[in-house]
Amino acid sequence: MVEEQEVHLTDLDNYLKAGLHIGTKFKTKYMAPFIYKIRSDGLAVLNVKKIDERLAVAAKFLAQYNPNEILVACRRENGWAGAKLFKKMTKIDTQAGRYRPGLLTNASLEDFKEIKVLLVTDPRPDKNAVVDAVKMGIPVIACCDTNNEINYIDLVIPCNNKGKKSLGLMFWILGKEYLKNRGLIKTDAEAPIPVEEFIKED
After folding, report:
1. Above 50 in pLDDT, residue 137?
2. Total tally of structural domains belonging to the chain
3. Which of 104, 136, 7 is CA-nearest to residue 21?
4. CB 101 within 8 Å of CB 128
5. Cα-based angle 74, 36, 24 (whole degrees, multiple of 5)
6. What DSSP character marks residue 68?
7. Cβ contact 174:193 at 8 Å
């Protein structure tokens, strides 16, 4: 829902301009609770308040862990720029691009990672990372659009997980809230990288 909402993590304008709430023409039963309405063109619109609430929950959960205990998997190219800025901002390791199967399960790999939580930008293209995390008993946070299944996902962040600006804004919000929850910054203005960098056009 957009009207009459108190959005706390960023200005409502930022959500709307980045289209973080604009879903797809397809919706799963799992994502139905997060949908505010269906537009006349058939696109599902996510509830901005619920996006905001889930981002806050996810940031608080992530803040319980050190950067080296978290991994971000982002196969979707539109998320790479935001994911890399997120890594620069938080020092959290980010796999932007292809996830190497076995990265979390095969200790004989030279780049094997021992982590305590996984964040994926879309459980569909990032399914290999999700499967590995599940095998290892690692909780999974996932950005889910209206068309996503949420099997094996421990915490859903409802959002447009396909748009570049949308993913950029999501990463900025999570990054600065992670830093706030860990006591490293106090205000949005102290964020080491401004929101404009995350949502700028190429």
Report:
1. yes
2. 1
3. 7
4. yes
5. 45
6. G
7. no
